[in-house]
């Protein structure tokens, strides 16, 4: 793919040098279209990130409210203006006042995803199993947080 792009770029430069009256307006047109596309993609990503920030995920250790073996209560509140599908997040467990993630680095259980579609204003809760923590820490003493939240937002 890279050699093809290099050949096209060299051909464009050669044509620009050989036929400047034709190629300069064509180059400006191509540049204008490329800038318009870049701006539109940037605005769409910015709007999507604003909507994604309005999806609230709260996680707490609540073995009394959940079934045995799944002590993490996850509440998702879709406060965005769009329906959220395929919501995924990474779990962060830490001591209050500290920033280190205490989930065992060998654990692959820290990534979660739900295929539940949440309409605007809708809430959902579910109990999940606790991933393996580093030794010496009690689950009830930790704070839990969702990070790297992602979702597909549809109208």
From TrEMBL:
Transmembrane portions of the chain: 28-47
Annotated keywords: Membrane, Transmembrane, Transmembrane helix
Top-level lineage group: Bacteria
The protein's name in its UniProt record: Multidrug transporter
